[in-house]
Amino acid sequence: MNAEPKVRNISDLARLAGVSAGTVSRALADSDLVNEKTRARIKALARQHGFRPNVMARNLRIQKTGAIGVVIPLGHDTGQHISDPFFITMLGLLADALTERGYDLMLSRVIPTDEDWLDRFTDSGRVDGMIVIGQSDQAAALDKVAERYRPLVVWGGHELGQVHCSVGSDNVAGGDLAASHLIARGCKRIAFFGDPTAREIKQRLQGCRRALARAGLGDDPSVFPVHLAAGVDDANISEFLADELQRPDGIVAASDVIAMSALRALSEMGIAVPGDVKVIGYDDLPIAEHTVPRLSTVKQDLTAGANTLVELLMRRIAGEETGSAIMAPKLVVRTST
């Protein structure tokens, strides 16, 4: 029995379809120069053999699109929006860095419904490269695409053995910084607010556990899986904090937005911050300076991060291989602790 022929390029598909390579190329591009029946037959063969034309390679041979795709995948926390303070800050910084290099930014917010969601962007031929903001629960999908598509850089946490190129802070060290600061301030019952389904938040929880274990407080803090979207869990946070038996004296929040929700709930309940409960966030967004009380937090340098994302992407577009970049976090002490 003969093995099914492999389809590695347009020429292979053309031989299989019994047409010219030009006809295949035009059919896959939905050109009216190829009749509808032939287009449908060629596309069906392409799907059958798992063939995707490398539109990006073709465009780079002809001319660049002048656009960079920026995608925000929301696999685990679908309630987040582009108006989220973290996204707004990062998008502004990325837009500045890309504009300075002569590129436009093409933005998409995606709720992944299948494993091929990223392939549709990378194979569209509309962009010269991709920046993904956040891994969410999609690390495996990112690795799959990164195996074949090189101009891809991701904001997020790094783990040993990952395929995709990432830029982000050392989240384990950052979680350790946050918890160690609360411990130094006298906290004994520390809770972690955040959903560790996402890689970055999982790593921040690991750091928090490390600090607690080192201080002899065990390594199992109370974990309250608060959503990243502002306002979604306000009632649940209030209910959690209303129980005096489980109420912590220190909260490590996985983001500044989560920390702000905690501050608001504590204020409405008449619980003093930092007198009764100390709160520390993560990110050091501009709004952290304007909360009441002013938010202590772990700073990840988003300006440097955005510039690094763009720099690594430009190098990968040019054909270079690049490693991931892990930035050191910094403790910023204000009045919430």
Question: What does this entry look like structurally?
Answer:
- There is one protein chain.
- This protein has 337 residues and is of the alpha/beta class.
- It is 40% helix and 16% strand.
- A 6-stranded parallel sheet has the order 2-1-3-4-5-11. Strands 7-6-8-9-10-12 form a 6-stranded mixed sheet, sandwiched between helices.
- Strand 6, helix 9 and strand 7 form a beta-alpha-beta unit.
- It is elongated and about 75 Å long.
- The chain starts with 9 loop residues before the first helix and ends in a 5-residue tail after the last strand.
- The mean pLDDT is 89.
What is the structure about, briefly put?
By secondary structure, this protein is an alpha/beta fold. The chain contains twelve helices and twelve strands.
Task: Write down the CATH topology of the largest domain.
Answer: Rossmann fold
What composes the largest sheet? 6 strands, parallel
Mean pLDDT: 89
The CATH H-level superfamily of the largest domain is Response regulator
Radius of gyration: 24 Å
Pattern of helices and strands? HHHHEHEHEHEEHEHEHEHEEHEE
Sheet with the most strands: spatial strand order: 2-1-3-4-5-11
DSSP strand tally: 12
Unreliable residue stretches: none
Which band does the percent of strand residues land in? 15-25%
| Structural domain tally | 3
**Any guess at the CATH architecture of the largest domain?**
3-Layer(aba) Sandwich
The structure class reads alpha/beta
Shape: elongated
Helix content: 40-55%
